[in-house]
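User: I want to check something. If I give you two sequences, will you return the structure for each one separately, not as a complex?

Assistant: Yes, each is folded on its own. Here is the first sequence with its structure:
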Amino acid sequence: MDDWLLIAFDSTQQALRAEMLLEYAEIEIDLFPTPKDVTAGCALSILFPGSELSVVQNIIEQEKVEIRGIFKKNNLDHYEIIER
């Protein structure tokens, strides 16, 4: 899962809504506990392939899903934000 990205949320409701929308769009996802180095209001995050970033961004924007941000794991195994 090296090229996967993580979406963090401020609420469980938004995480579950995003899960439903992304599964409906047939994007491979994985619900994942929010890592400690990602500050978010929700304990659930979604992992998805980096190759699907533009599709995921479009779904989030069109459906007005509220996210904390999209993160990528760096070489030190920490997550850094790539989009808010």
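And separately, the second sequence with its own structure:
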Amino acid sequence: MKATSFLSFWVSVLLLPSCGHSLPELPGFDATAWRRDPYACNNQRAKQLPVLQQHKELLYGTRADDIDALFGRPDEEELSEQTEKLYFYYLEPGTQCEPSHQRSTANKLVLRFGPLGTVTEVLYERPLPQEAPAG
């Protein structure tokens, strides 16, 4: 019995790190401000979008637990076929700010997790507006 527990421990130690990476710091991203604005009802998340967009490639391959630690629990979550799941984080106020927290058409950050529980896609419900080039 002890040998089985010992073996299970080492298998966990060796295999789990290969299933994703821990989230590196996103320079300039204020995670505390993001987490304090559930459903984006205080319109504070929108201020974080330029930094998030600049560093979104760092999110790929990140485990769900690390995403939870950075962004907080998602405003909405969906399970899809083939053991994938989606996290939704609102980016602007909308009907989700009403007491019933109804699903809204407000823009959302969408994180898709693959079967290994790591981020495979970083999307926006509606594309972000592109800034006009200076000149």
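Because they were folded independently, the notes below concern the second chain alone. The two ends are 71 Å apart (CA to CA). The beta strands are 76-80, 84-90, 108-113, 119-124.
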